[in-house]
Amino acid sequence: MADNRKVMIAVVGAGKCSKKLRDMAFEVGKYVAEHNGVVICGGLGGIMEGAAKGAKEAGGVTIGILPSENKEDANEYIDYVIPTGFGEARNIMVVRAADAVVAFPGKYGTLSEMAFALHSKKPVVSINAWKLGDEIEQVDNPIDAARRAMELAEKGK
Amino acid sequence: MADNRKVMIAVVGAGKCSKKLRDMAFEVGKYVAEHNGVVICGGLGGIMEGAAKGAKEAGGVTIGILPSENKEDANEYIDYVIPTGFGEARNIMVVRAADAVVAFPGKYGTLSEMAFALHSKKPVVSINAWKLGDEIEQVDNPIDAARRAMELAEKGK
Amino acid sequence: MADNRKVMIAVVGAGKCSKKLRDMAFEVGKYVAEHNGVVICGGLGGIMEGAAKGAKEAGGVTIGILPSENKEDANEYIDYVIPTGFGEARNIMVVRAADAVVAFPGKYGTLSEMAFALHSKKPVVSINAWKLGDEIEQVDNPIDAARRAMELAEKGK
Amino acid sequence: MADNRKVMIAVVGAGKCSKKLRDMAFEVGKYVAEHNGVVICGGLGGIMEGAAKGAKEAGGVTIGILPSENKEDANEYIDYVIPTGFGEARNIMVVRAADAVVAFPGKYGTLSEMAFALHSKKPVVSINAWKLGDEIEQVDNPIDAARRAMELAEKGK
Fold first, then answer.
1. C63: helix, coil or strand?
2. Contact C22, C115 (CB under 8 A)
3. If 0-12 CB within 10 Å is exposed, 13-18 middle and 19+ buried, where does residue C41 land?
4. pTM to 2 decimals?
5. Beta B100-103 vs B8-12: how paired, if at all?
6. Are residues D106 and D90 in contact, defined by beta-carbon separation less than 8 angstroms?
7. pLDDT tens figures, B12-30
């Protein structure tokens, strides 16, 4: 990564979730933006929207990589919308573009993102997401997740 | 699925594996071909090669969807090679083309295939592969795996 | 390409076309199958359906790589359906899997397939398709197109 | 497109080109950034690098969607790097993310981007790029190209 580029943190998790989880994702996005990181995500609702909203609250930058071909499908907190038309294969791109991944609970789409992150050796920090072995760091609050993801991302530079 | 089309069974698992696992994959491929099914896989070595070899032993048909752009990367038992150049995203295509999936032990690429199969509601039969919940049927020998996958695939017609 | 593998000929062109063009595509597919080649295409209607029907008439094998995730979208003459869910990006896979391409008139999807074929140095034989320079052989009847495509494909082995 | 989002202009063309063409691409990127647009491109050299450099000169934002999996392959003027690992299929994403496309001379990769732009009904402005019919506006200097692309992009909002 060129030294002038900002760290990119992927936030992955369910497209529909409880208010509590959304608020936690918001905290992750806010922390990332406050520390000069970029939030990248799948661009839709739930965890993705929470994280993007948090980043915008802190004046940060957000990128959303959509499964569909339609920019209109992005949530309102996404600055730069990349509509792929590739369906779930866009999960791979979310992960590849990230320097580290924060994983929230989600279903099989989230699982696939975690699998691809591990496959491509991206650091993954989990808040109650899928248990997939020791390569994933488990934390129990959003600030720790965001801080740890930023540290791991910087280390990978 | 048109009634005249053969059932397609994806066999997924590690690209490098023990002889024992390869032999088990061979049995799966052979059973599928003997029962008029087509083996589809990622086209490379290990589990994929074992399954394709088994299918050819029984005079069956094999399809391999490669991560690379080069047909030469396919193992010698693949009849129809689809070289995608899409890297790991080809895993999604292997699963989408299948009517059911037999999963062998593998690393995160295999995990992503199982995740995508579950995401797209394809039946998955596992022989000691990742434990991901009750939607996946666990069996302990290749003949049971192949038989059960064929049954589930036919049911989905 | 392994010596035992059959030559694969992509037939590309409009998904909706005149009966005359469909009949010409039928002749291409029939010739390819009669000479032991496999027809690969985008799996939908028009030129693709004509070519697949011709190949089946001659007892050949057909592969269709669909833009959608649904096998049901394939025409009835496709033996092996690969539903990608990748939209127009599936055009790239049709071309990559082919040893040579026969191009019929079509719109921008066809143009993109011809562009990708030229980009990846696949031989292209055109029957009144887009004029894109000297690397594309122009012929004016389906038998010449199929024969020439088979020759170029064999040469590339 | 949400009203608060900036217009995104794709600049496509050869990855290796003359200094004169690079300078023209620079002018396009600069104009786009000066008028509050974002430059999106394939992230590599030649036309892509010229356009990105121009945008950064004017304090703008640049996004590069790479064919490879490696962020390091991006040119130094790209702010946000999306490494796809999807090879030439990334061309489709460059075009889909754009509200309008400026096309410079290029080979078959550029042709495929123009084909996909036309296929998905994105406005294309050409500076001596492939002649593909009346749907593409021909201009002969970079300022006209950038101005016209911005107008067409705004109209599509």
1. strand
2. no
3. buried
4. 0.95
5. parallel
6. no
7. 999 999 999 999 999 999 9
